[in-house]
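# nightly structure sweep
# worker-07 picked up a monomer target from the shared queue
# config: single-sequence mode, recycle default, output format = structure tokens
# input follows
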Amino acid sequence: MAHDRKLSAHFVMAVILASCQTLAAFGPSDSEDGLEMLRGPGSYRILGEDTTIRFPFDIYRGDIRFRAEVNGHPVRLLLDDGFMWDPLLFWGGPDAEALELERDGTIMVGDEGDETALASDTASGITVRLPGVEFLDQTAVITPESSGNSRMWEGSVGQVSATFFKHFVVDINFDSMMITLIEPDQFRYRGRGSAVPWKPLEIGAWSIPGTILDGDRREVSLQLMMDLGYNLQAQIATGGEHEFEAPEGAVPGSLGFNIQGQETRGHIGKVAGIVIGGFEVKDVAAAFVLGEHADHTFHEVMIGLGLLSRFNLVFDASRNRLFVEPSGSFSDPFD
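# output follows
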């Protein structure tokens, strides 16, 4: 999978989380069965009698991509979960302009005082339509066309996150290449996978427990930050709490660029295995972030779509859990 674009989507949304107060926090509300429902962005409307929503997706340049309509215009969107943000994220340019977005403000995307921060627009009153469901009153962040984001994520007009995850249980099946949205009070898991706790990190990201088996078969159990928008298998910061090191024979190179065009350097190597929910994925390719670059990573170990796509995934945010079930590609060797 291509990796010359990443360390990016989760970076921009971390900044938005820190600087934009329009994001709704996870929080419980009362329900008859005691289920802790989430305050999702805007609202949604089921369009037919079938309350279970199904639609196909593809993997395009290492991202989950699907068709939808935004304000009545057909588009392709990406699905990301790195920081579970409420607004949609659009790449500024002709495709975004065609959506007739109602701009209502600006925010700076970047660290406070950083001269490379991007002045981005905000918008509201947006409708996203999929087969069987409409999401109403959505908000968005639109990066400037000059940033080049529309070229970086060519093939899509933007990303969606909490619009799905906070309203529905989200079933991503990499065998059928179908996404299923299920209302939380209607969901019952009947698969053969394992449930793992899905918990927030202080930085605003989300994680699951797992175990890293390094080259010496050392077992390190820790929280794995997970990000569907990161298209490599894993990213490991060296020299941290668990003193991970790049393995012998790892190849130096670029690990990606953030949304401001800043590069992260490191090495590409392998770990002997990563265990999630009792299932071990062997010989996992990983990006090892070195030196001062490691100091700027969000978490010691992050796993991305390159690894997560070895499982069929069911995200049940209402109960803070994720179901993982090995997919048909689970045992395939990594490039």
